[in-house]
Write a structure and sequence with these properties.
This protein is α/β, with parallel strands linked by helices. Strand 1, helix 1 and strand 2 form a beta-alpha-beta unit.
């Protein structure tokens, strides 16, 4: 099963370094990319960075709440201006069920 990361360049590159498949997208191309991956049977989860999902609008919210597989999860972006610590490994363990 695959976990796909969609979002800003910095966050996607960080996830690629630890072995995840990632694609840099903007808010306009986010929903079409999610729909593309939804049709693939081997995609278990799609992680979307908050920097892109926040601007994607209602269509993203509707898609996220309506779709059960793959799991669509929003993760904090690395370039987030808030100074709070984010445990990405805990998020990944939760998604992967480990």
């Amino acid at each position: 099963m695959r976990v796909i990361v969609l979002g800003d360049e910095d966050t996607v590159n960080a996830f690629r370094l630890i072995g995840f498949e990632g694609y840099v997208v903007d808010s306009k191309s986010l929903v079409p990319r999610i729909k593309e991956f939804m049709s693939m049977d081997d995609v278990a989860a799609i992680l979307v960075t908050s920097s892109v999902s926040g601007e994607a609008g209602q269509e993203f919210i509707n898609l996220r709440t309506r779709i059960r597989k793959p799991l669509i999860l929003e993760v904090p972006a690395l370039g987030n201006s808030e100074n709070k610590e984010v445990n990405y490994m805990a998020i990944l363990r939760s998604v992967l069920g480990i």
